[in-house]
Amino acid sequence: MKHIKTLNTKKLSNTVKKGGCGECQTSCQSACKTSCTVGNQSCENNNK
Amino acid sequence: MIHQYKNNGYNIVLDVNSGAVHVVDDVTYDVIKYVDDNLSDKFSGLSDKIIIDDFRKEYPEHESIGSNDLEEIIDEIEELIESRELFTEDLYEKPIEDYKNRPTVVKALCLHIAHDCNLACKYCFAEEGEYKGKRELMSYEVGKKALDFLVANSGSRKNLEVDFFGGEPLMNFQVVKDLVKYGRSIEEKNNKHFRFTLTTNGVLLNDEIMEFANENMDNVVLSIDGRKEIHDMMRPFPSGDGSYDLIVSKFIKFANSRNQEKYYVRGTFTHNNLDFSKDVLHLADLGFKQISVEPVVAKESDEYALREEDLPKLYEEYDSLAKEMVRRHGTDKEFNFFHFMIDLEGGPCVYKRLSGCGSGTEYLAVTPTGDLYPCHQFVGDTHFLMGNVDTGIKNTELQGEFKSCNVYAKKECRNCFARFYCSGGCAANAYNFKGSILENYEVGCKLQKKRIENAIMIKAATSE
Prior knowledge:
heterodimer, A: little secondary structure, 1 helix, 6% strand, flat, B: alpha/beta, eleven-stranded mixed sheet, three-stranded antiparallel sheet, 16 strands, 40% helix
């Protein structure tokens, strides 16, 4: 595309199909303890 | 739903529900805005000519742009709509409801190993470790029961997280060591893996503890606020003396001994240092590569609390920090800032993003006497007492309230572009400011949105 550059290729909607396995880190255990940040966390679903 | 903004020379269009991030030129930015504002069915049934004529009326500044260019832009937009990367709908409410209704398992504990502290930080929500109670240390027996409780209630989850927290956990270091040993001893037979983390102010940190932590802790969080004068102002000893000089060299050594990975230096900024980007850069210039400096959570009456009128200055600070991080990208001065980290490719699934932080359900805090609370920020408020490590969860009604807390249960979140990145925000902040975990703490939300915009801009800038 000439006018639009898309940064990511993964669509969130595709992650619905695999279900939530819950193996990923709990939000508050990372650093914050006073806020909630999930956008930076890694998926740990081994079956993805 | 889309979210558009301009930052540091980049025109960014976030398609909220697909998570797609588009960087566009000036005219395309306005065409997308025009479509969003005016065409409820987007392009259906309208010729390019009608759209272009109307667009030119609404945006006369683009009058000189040729029809061919505008047709090209419209084609590109249509292509993205077709591939479900622009103007997508939110189809996740039902799946999230089902997900939240699944049987609850516990996968993380915040162990309050010491309700005592050797510092007297002015903003401490733990009140120098006392948490509205008395100074006390967790015994090995209570800690052991907590780990057993976690294993017994974790269902099929393999990875279990345990944070040694306080107060100051190194005031009870022998119990930390003993609990790590115990945890390891029960991993294999239960098919579990513990990820231990330690949060410390550094006062008691020594070589032996660093070595132990490097062998056993998946992550360590090292509390330091930034510049010496800022740190010493808010993080003094009970005598009033500052703690910066005692801890800073130990933290540098500790971070290096972990190869600058799997740790955070973690600071708090307040109304007293609204220029907090200087504190972040101070830490970066000391050589730290993993940095988190976060807004204080305080009562409105506290003199150091952040206020609505501080927001413009704080936005400037986040912008300036983000620009500096772009400048440092790819150099040996590059560093990570926790609140600007965003994973556009391998990030978490929709369930993780929308189902809330897990407090009161999969994440619990354990006091020195073994009482269970929804998270560390609720400890000491007996309204939130959920049970203890002997009896398990007794207050199932409260657990149900936390279980139902997700972005769709919060009216402010439903139309917010940030909901896929903050998961509805911190329940404790919402409760402390608004009296309900289903409300929103506005200042926190506004700062969160700003951080997300900056994080995406950094991705745009560093992808070139």
